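This protein record is not my work; I was only asked to verify it. Where you disagree with what is written, explain briefly why. This is what I was given:
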Amino acid sequence: MPLILNRHLWLEGLAARVWSGEVAHVGCADSPYTAELLAAGALLHSRLVRVARVTGIDVDPRALDLVARSLPGERFVLADVAAVVPGDERGRYSLVIAGEVLEHVADADSFLRGCGALLAPGGSLCVTVPNACCPKIGLRALAGRESVHPDHRVYYGPRTLARTLEGAGLTVTWMGSCFPPGAGLSGRFVFNPLLRVAHRALQGPVGDGLIALASNA
């Protein structure tokens, strides 16, 4: 399984390769940390709009307004794709990015079907999630700790992520593990180098996260 060293850089490169179509970024506001990420210059959507024609889609009106005011002239849609995909958005996008969203939603199947409805024929859905198989999780468990976002509902490993995508009528075309941007000192200088060595030896899903590409079946 490939190992991506920086999730944001990889997603930025993926969006940049959409030469003639449009990109949808579902969960673009990254609530509830929108203001902090904007202030730090770390919001993924701010990077994506530099390299492609990107529409930001989110369910949180206040967070979406913050992003829209910080990026004047960009296109945004307030919508919950797990419930209703607006007619103008259906079949519109060559690439749909749902980064670090799937683990938050109550109904993964409805959410993924909604993302699939956004895709133009031949388009790709890119999903990123935290990786349940990352060795760091096991080390924390040995110490009696669980480091998890307070809004997360589920963990995904490679097989459960693939099964979830396929259960929503999608075909998985590629999968890799990844490191997040902005790792702490222990991650950059201790754990991540060790995991890179382990990956070279065994090719396992050692990264903090998983990235999957899928298409409509």
Remarks:
- The mean pLDDT is 93.
- The helical segments are 7-16, 34-40, 44-51, 61-70, 108-118, 135-142, 158-167, 185-202.
